[in-house]
């Protein structure tokens, strides 16, 4: 789960909310190095990880706020009109400022009521650049006045019934913020240049009273329909409750009440009584979708790069996972094929042994057939040959294989003897078809003999 961090930079203080815990660090100056060192100290103190949801609160005294009525309900037209309004009404070049707005609603006749907030880019860049050394990228930059509204709503829960319209006076170290809330939304806001430090001086206190009265009149004139009867004091205003009641009771029909939360009471116990953490605590509990949010182009680019980097990482992890799966499948198939090949090899070896045994049995059967079958038995041929061979024929050799030709070799004194013997064999049942292949005369012990070869298919 992401840790929610809310940061506000004042001239001499760095305010930080980590979850629902608050911390304050003194600042030597508002240079990026000083802010980074103080922020790093707080993050280490609370042992914050890297998964952070960071919001920056811009103090109201650094923002110019105007209430604007425009004759349109189209967001694109409203932004174009506000761009023209900035050129005419703000004493800065358009390129020097960052602006944001909140649409408070349509009046039902012709106009949309807007809150326009404008701040110098240099203020943003100085704060945001201080986050680079601690590797923090702000998700949003908010206005402190709206944090006060969220803080009062949270602090009044189960304690005070909030009216439809009321005012908030938040006193900080060196300025005060008077906020008008109408229809449960930020209606307008006015800065009073005196804060808790200045109110310690009687002369400055008198100036504060004058500024405070003028701010009350200005807010009442901006929204005549907002009839406020209650002023809630927050921040360092607890010690000024009696002073406020005197001013309000004398010139205005307003009742004052100081609101505090448990977290703020715990903070006051630490001794920082002149610092307001109301806005920081307000945004730590709630941020509305329609709250004013400033956006620097640099932050937007970094966010888009971070988002694309996350997408690339997800895509890369997905591709690696797919490759691993495919590799695993290929490896399993390879192992299966090797196992199947080994099994086939074993079967071939086993079948080869069985086939060899069968071949041995077959050869034995072939040999046995020569003796079992009377018609094709070698003994039958030998017996018939013994019966039919005359005395004038000498057989020297015979060759016989089952299913092949039967060959007889020998010699005789004359060729007619050989021919008679061949005819005798051919006319018998066993040697039917016998033929004389050749005859050849030779000497045998001073006698002339004739060799012959008779074959039977």
Distance between the termini: 99 Å
How many domain modules? 3
Structural class given helices, strands, pairing?
Answer: alpha+beta
Tell me the Rg in angstroms.
57 Å
Structure summary, number of beta strands = 18
Sketch the topology as an H/E string, one letter per element: EEEHEEHEEHEHEEEHEHEHHEHHEEHEE
Question: Can you characterise this structure?
Answer:
By secondary structure, the chain is of the alpha+beta class. The protein folds into 3 domains: 3-295, Nucleotidyltransferase, domain 5; 298-372; 378-456, 2-Layer Sandwich (Threonyl-tRNA Synthetase, Chain A, domain 2). It has helices spanning 32-45, 75-89, 121-129, 144-156, 202-222, 241-251, 262-268, 278-285, 297-372, 378-388, 415-427; strands at 3-9, 13-18, 21-26, 52-58, 64-70, 97-106, 112-120, 140-143, 165-171, 176-182, 185-192, 230-235, 255-258, 293-294, 393-399, 406-412, 435-444, 447-456. The strands form 4 sheets. It has a 6-stranded mixed β-sheet with strand order 3-2-1-4-8-14, with helices on both faces. Helix 4 packs across helix 8. The chain is rod-shaped. The model has no long low-confidence stretch (mean pLDDT 85).
